[in-house]
Every structure is written in C-alpha cells, then in structure tokens.
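HUMAN: Would you supply a protein with fold tokens?

ASSISTANT:
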Amino acid sequence: MSTALRAFDFLKLRTVAFSLPQNLCTHLQNVSRSTLARTSVPYTQSSLTICAILLRHGLISNMTLGDPTAADPTNFRRLSPPQKRIWLGLKYRNGIPVLRNMSLISKPSKRIYATKDELGRILTGRRAVNVAGVGIGEILVVKTPDTLMEGWEAWRAGLGGELILRCS
C-alpha cells in the first residue's frame, strides 16, 4: 500500500471521527472559551445542519465554506472531501462568549429518544425521559427521521426523535 493511500485513509478516518456531534460540540466549546474569532470544522451534512441552527439562533456570527487554510467558497466544489471545511465566526459580548455551553444529551453508549409530546414537555421547561427542561436562551437539536432540526421546529412539524444536544 502506498504512503499516499495510507495518508488519504487516515484523513478520511479523521474526518469521519470528527464529524460526530460530540466532537463538534467539544471543539466549538473549547474555541469559544479560548476567545478565538474564527475556527473551522470538517464539512459533513450533520455539522453543516448543526452550524446552520446555531447561526439562525444567533450563537455564531457567520458560516462560510472553504478549504483548510481559508474561508474561500469559490473552489469548494473542486476540493476532495477531507479538505472541505466549514469556517465559523464566533460571537462575543464584552469578552464573554455568546456560545457559553454545548452539551450532549444522547451519547453513543445511551441514545435518548423523545416522542412529540415528550419533546413538548422538555421545550416548555419540564422534565421528560430523564432530560431536564430547556431553559431561557437554550436551544435543543433533535435528529428526526429525515434530518436534524431545532426542537421547536420538530415539535411544530409533529415529529419526535433522538435528542442530540443543547446549546446556550
């Protein structure tokens, strides 16, 4: 096996391992605590969806597609999958990160699912399926059968699903 092929396999494995929500969650929390203005994460559909939810709710300032060195979307389609990155701009107010906390709800060892009714209870601040209710300024990311959605969007659509993470 050639060295180039082994390096490609390593990059592919590294990208797959980083694409897990727990790695994205840890990375964004560490970057926001170290007060960096920009960071990049590997491009996957789940990472893109989670970052879009964070952007919609004002927890990050911007999101751009690019390569490992710069946020330049012009040549994004020509890049190989391990080179595709999502560049995020983080927000700070008076030196304090807007994205204060990201924590997993469902873990690889224990998946937590909620029906539409249980999701409604969690979103209104009450405890259900061993999950504390969502507080003020907190959002919930839910994996529905089709895609990842914000908790209220899933509830309005009449869907339940796996509770992935909560952010504040």
Summary: The two ends are 46 Å apart (CA to CA). The first helix runs from residue 3 to 18. The chain has two domains: 19-97, 102-167. The domain at 102-167 is CATH 3.30.1490.10 (Dna Ligase; domain 1).
